[in-house]
Design goal:
The protein has 370 residues and is mainly alpha-helical. The chain has one domain: Ribonucleotide Reductase, subunit A, CATH 1.10.620.20. Helices cover 62% and strands 0% of the residues. It has 12 helices and no strands. It starts with 36 loop residues before the first helix and ends in a 42-residue tail after the last helix. The structure holds fe (ii) ion (FE2) (2 copies). One fe (ii) ion (FE2) binds next to α4 and α9.
Length: 370
């Protein structure tokens, strides 16, 4: 049977038939599901890259002469990103994808593609950096540090917790209707909360982790690792935009009172994540006297994530370290195609994204693809 429509009355219980009658259909890419998903599809695929596209060997000249405390902070920061990317690929994106109604085959495809990038490309790239820069026993110690770091574990559990709640709702809704003990609105709340967590991860926590690699990149150091970071950053940028867009559609279905309640939940999550992230930043960057500067970038990205979710920024505008801004600016780099694959080099036609690319008219479901 066709799954429940997205918007339903508050009181209505979800009562899918079980076993569900066979009514499978296929993704028809000749018709638009909305007016933005196929744009994101094109952008995602045109940005595709592989961890092995970039050789890291030439960074070793710089890495080898860095002080130990700098190597330690750089490695721990990438380890944090590894943990986040791993679960975003294993759980985050897949859970959001399977929570969508079956009629959204194209949206699912886009989310599944993003899911594949997180672990198979992004997390693996961090492992490639570790493998190049660090001896194997130090890599093992690094992962063990992540397993035991309370702040990192708390961040993971705050984010993954929202995914797990939605996953349970989706499972029961689709496969175990006898156990349905929630309304359709409660399902949508869980879906929105998971998307909110996803955007906080993509647009805020990932970006905050890019501070230190960009800090080096902006000074022309560890350039190959910086190239990898720029490729990952480019992916996370559109991931956060896309899931943010989906989340806003759901948020609009709630009445004003429910929206206020959900905003309260979101700011509570934001404050918890900010507390854990701040402590984690101090652990990693206090030895370098950089924590204050990193936290400015953390707040800058929290504001960006809120905007992707359709809300106003909450932190005052502050000046981000120009070295990091310089590292973020992908248009100013020079490329040596014999030794690196920069973000200006793509296999397929790709244009740099502009804010105006993400101003859409209302979705015209079923409109033909031109
Ligand atoms: Fe990622
Ligand atoms: Fe992502």
């Amino acid at each position: 049977m066709a799954r429940q429509p997205l918007k339903r009355k508050i009181e209505e219980k979800v009562k899918p038939q079980f076993p569900q009658p066979i009514d499978f259909d296929g993704a028809n890419w000749n018709e638009m599901e909305d007016d933005y998903t196929q744009l994101f599809y094109e952008q995602n695929l045109s940005q595709f890259w592989r961890p092995e596209d970039i050789s890291l060997q030439s960074d070793l000249n710089v890495w080898d002469i860095l002080p130990d405390e700098v190597k330690d902070a750089y490695s721990k920061n990438l380890l944090v990103l590894t943990f986040l990317d791993t679960y975003q690929g294993d759980i985050g994106m897949p859970v959001v994808s399977r929570s969508l109604d079956d009629r959204f085959h194209q949206r699912k495809a886009v989310l599944n593609f993003m899911a594949a990038m997180e672990n198979a490309v992004h997390a693996k790239s961090y492992s490639n950096i570790f493998m190049t820069f660090l001896p194997s026993h130090v890599i093992s110690e690094l992962f063990a540090w992540g397993n035991k770091n309370d702040n990192l574990q708390n961040i993971m559990s705050l984010i993954v917790g929202a995914y797990e709640v939605l996953d349970r709702f989706t499972y029961v809704r689709n496969y175990d209707p006898e156990k349905v003990d929630f309304t359709e609105e409660e399902f949508l709340e869980a879906q929105w909360k998971a998307m909110c967590a996803s955007v906080f991860l993509e647009s805020w926590l990932f970006y905050s982790g890019f501070y230190y690699p960009l800090y080096f990149y902006g000074q022309g150091k560890l350039m190959q690792a910086g190239e990898i970071i720029n490729l990952i950053l480019r992916d996370e940028s559109i991931h956060g935009l896309y899931v943010g867009k989906l989340s806003q559609e759901i948020f609009e279905t709630f009445d004003a009172e429910k929206q206020e309640e959900l905003k309260g939940w979101m700011f509570n999550l934001l404050h918890k994540l900010y507390k854990e992230t701040s402590e984690l930043v101090e652990t990693i960057y206090d030895p370098l006297d950089l924590s204050h500067d990193v936290k400015i970038f953390v707040r800058y990205n929290a504001n960006k994530a809120l905007m992707n979710l359709g809300f106003d920024p909450v932190y005052p505008q502050e000046e981000v370290n120009p070295l990091v801004i310089n590292g973020l600016n992908t248009e100013t780099k020079t490329h040596d195609f014999f030794s690196m694959k920069g973000t200006g080099y793509q296999k397929m036609k790709t244009e740099a994204l502009k804010d105006s690319d993400f101003v859409f008219n209302q979705p015209a479901r079923g409109a033909k693809v031109s």
